[in-house]
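Repro:
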Amino acid sequence: MLNNILCATDGSKSSEKAVDFAIKLAQRESAKLTFVTVSLVAGDATAKSYFWDSDVARAGDAQIDKELSTAEAKAKAAGLANYSSATVYGKNIAASLIEFAESSGYDHIVTGSIGRTGVSRLLLGSIAYEVVAKAHCPVTIVR
């Protein structure tokens, strides 16, 4: 039985499918659902840097807000009552997701994958693959 589901979202088509799947899974299991996105740059780090300006930082925050509010709107429209969202900061997306899931007590992770194969997967890696390989709990990859 699942109690706490974590769904990674980044606004991509594959993560939109993952959001839809996670909502249905949470409904079926009567589980809490949390949508999470990973920001590669923390707001306090940009404030201390000469390389970032406030307009760029605000644009990044606005994109994150849009990704999470879109997922929350889908959950609300589906009648799901027990959902929330979070932003995690870290330079390695997969490691940040895994650490957040483990430290917060999630027992299932849902993520999207664009399904890279061959040389592109070798060169670019796969966030979904790393999550599956290193997560403490079951992971569902939605394509």
